[in-house]
Design a protein that fits this description.
By secondary structure, the chain is α+β, with helices and mostly antiparallel strands. Helix content is 50%, strand content 15%. The protein has 14 helices and 11 strands. The chain has helices at residues 2-23, 27-33, 40-75, 101-116, 166-170, 196-203, 207-210, 282-292, 304-310, 313-347, 349-357, 362-391, 407-433, 437-440, and strands at 86-92, 121-127, 137-142, 156-162, 174-177, 191-195, 214-217, 225-231, 246-250, 267-274, 298-303. α3 (40-75) packs antiparallel against α10, α3 packs antiparallel against α13 (407-433) and α10 (313-347) runs parallel beside α13 (407-433). The longest helix has 36 residues, at 40-75. The two termini are 51 Å apart. Mean pLDDT is 86; it is low at 256-260.
Length: 444
């Protein structure tokens, strides 16, 4: 109903001006001046509409180009992990049945062992938060300076409990030190891995300076944990996130922390690296789960590639919409410019015939018509630049790594608009250059 109403209103509004002009023609003046001079007001109105179309087309073209370049930059962002052939899911153990950490650990270990032994499973890791999934923010303090009494003011990092194989499963590279091992348990010293963003913030990028330093998390009973390795930063929030420091703790050392951590034993995320299509392994994984506990189910099942793809869904939607509108607007501008120039050539047939009769060459007529169309395009482009500078301020939050006033984008869009305008004017100009003087002046 809205679309039909819009079409009706548009038809009435844009049909009103020509109808009003036609209804107010001065017959005597029109007969005296002849057909050649009638309709100059309408010609100006048509040119004004064409310039407006070109202006809007340029603004949308700039917006679409900025989003395309920004999306291209985004698609080249290194997420810090390898999403290929990785199936993820969450194992949620019932609180009433698994009321002690030992029971939860036993069930998780057994399921991990069974899935690891399935044919085609190359690696398996577990974590309290898979990338692009659940995030955990913990306040922490780095040893070496007096602690602030108010722990609310402590710096905050994304902190996860992981097993010794999680980083290898996700392809998170080790940059310095060592990875976690299966010996990092409750009876061994508390250790952590940090990412290169953590090192950049606290050690000016010197990874070896970070090794051996200690930190502890917010809480009265939290132990000091030694930094034993540095890994690549992972985009846990998405490809366009502002980098946050990340810390990885051995999952078996959760019991050395506050009791609030125990619930993670009952809700661990699994990352399963497979040789083939990840989802094809799901029936076999569910069968192994039933052998561990027939009452358990899997949640949040998805491939890591799909998670990564879905993280850019909103940006792709915005890109698709604005690009579609820009191309439609550009096409409508070209059609409108072609129509105006064709109509103008028909109206000026007599004038063109006179020009050619007194010595004008076809190439002169071609240049004349192309010049007139190009003037409209240049005016539309100049107005479009001003409009685009105002419009793109609202796009700044959607742009990644580029400026809303990127000169390359503006120059490329201007060149494209002018090329389209010249193409739209070429056929009317070519038609004008083929006018025969005798035919044009026959009825004069």
């Amino acid at each position: 109903i809205f679309s039909v109403g819009t079409i009706f209103v548009a038809a009435v509004l844009f049909g009103f001006l020509p109808a009003w002009k036609a209804a107010h023609v001065n017959v005597e003046s029109a007969l005296k001046s002849g057909a050649r001079s009638s309709g100059h007001g309408l010609a100006r109105a048509r040119k004004t509409l064409i310039v407006s179309e070109l202006t809007l087309a340029f603004m949308l073209l700039i917006s679409a180009s900025l989003l395309v370049k920004s999306f291209w930059r985004l698609s080249n962002v290194n997420p810090g992990f390898d999403p290929q052939h990785v199936l993820t899911f969450r194992l949620r153990l019932p609180d009433s049945k698994y009321d002690k950490p030992e029971k939860s650990i036993r069930a998780v270990k057994e399921l991990r062992r069974r899935i690891s032994e399935l044919p085609g499973v190359t690696r398996l890791g577990i974590t309290s938060g898979i990338p692009l999934g659940r995030q955990n923010e913990f306040g922490y303090w780095l040893e070496g300076q007096p602690e602030l009494d108010n722990q609310v003011q402590w710096p905050v990092a994304l902190a996860y409990y992981v097993d010794e194989d999680l980083c290898r499963t996700l392809g998170i590279p080790l940059l310095a030190g060592r990875m976690l091992s299966e010996t990092d348990g409750t009876d061994s010293p508390a250790v952590v891995l940090v990412d290169d963003e953590f090192v950049r913030v606290h050690f000016r990028g010197d990874m070896h300076a970070a090794l051996g330093r200690r930190l502890r998390f917010k809480g009265n009973n939290e132990p000091w944990r030694e930094i034993v390795g540095v890994v690549r930063h992972v985009t846990h929030y998405g490809l366009e996130e502002h980098a946050r420091a990340e810390v990885y703790q051995p999952w078996l050392q959760m019991s050395s922390g506050p009791s609030v951590s125990f619930h993670y034993f009952r809700a661990m995320d699994f990352a399963v690296k497979t040789a083939g299509a990840p989802t094809s392994y799901l029936p076999a994984i569910k069968a192994e789960l039933r052998k561990v506990d027939n009452d358990l189910t899997l949640g949040n099942v998805a491939t890591l590639e799909k998670k990564l793809h879905d993280s850019t869904a909103t940006r792709r939607l915005n890109l698709g919409l604005i690009t579609t509108f820009a191309l439609l607007s550009l096409a409508l501008s070209a059609v409108g410019l072609y129509g105006v120039m064709s109509y103008g050539v028909n109206q000026r047939t007599t004038e063109i015939g006179i020009r050619m009769a007194v010595g004008a060459q076809p190439k002169d007529i071609l240049k004349l018509i192309l010049r007139e169309g190009l003037v409209l395009a240049v005016i539309g482009t100049l107005l479009g630049v001003s409009g685009a500078l105002a419009l793109t301020r609202f796009l700044s939050s959607l742009l990644l790594g580029i400026s809303a006033t990127d000169p390359v984008i503006y120059l490329a869009a201007s060149a494209l608009l002018l090329v389209v305008a010249i193409a739209a004017c070429f056929w009317p100009a070519r038609k004008a250059s083929t006018v025969q003087p005798l035919e044009a002046l026959r009825y004069e």
